[in-house]
Input
Amino acid sequence: MLVDDDLELVEMLRDYLERDGFRVDVTSDGLAATGKAVSGDYALIVLDVMMARVSGLEVLRCIRARSSVPVLMLTAKGEDNDKVSGLEVGADDYVPKPCTPRELSARIRAILRRAGSVSFDDPPMEKVVVGSLVIWPDRRKAEWAGKALDLTSTEFNLLEMLAREAGLPVSKEVLSARGLGKPRSRYDRSIDVHVSSIRRKLTMAGAKVPMIETVHGLGYQLVRV
Output
């Protein structure tokens, strides 16, 4: 679903995405989009930050209160605050406007690849266990001490990567390339924002000590306890 009140841009993006093999619904009404987004009918939501009736960030908050469906934000070029705010609320990625349809399609595919389940022909992936943390990669499910962690698709990817390398530092460059599906730029704070959200959710689930440590000058590591 594509949510944007720029009708000319929406039509251009929809035409391209449909030619690229996607089925696309569009709406310019952020409030209506919220109900549709949590219906389970959509694999991904493309959501503009700046809309007339209600901001994309408010729509995202409403979606995240009820669903972990992947959300890709469209932000004004150079508006770093919008990017950071979107990631903090739970966006999986962002694309600055104006963007090319080809770039948007590539970002959508990257998110869907990361969020998609394995095929039935693939051998099942063993669960990853680090202390009280248990991750089932095939089911895209994670628990802390038996309590489910409500993670976004990107947060799940990052936590799984850190868990598989528990006790060892993982660079932000590697986390960005494999977890977000894009190279990390020099001043990109995306990884930091996502890790902060994961830490908060682990704490809410009952983790008593910081499970993810900052490795200064490099990245992050999941602590073995």
The mean pLDDT is 87. The CA atoms of residues 5 and 28 lie 4 Å apart. The radius of gyration is 18 Å.
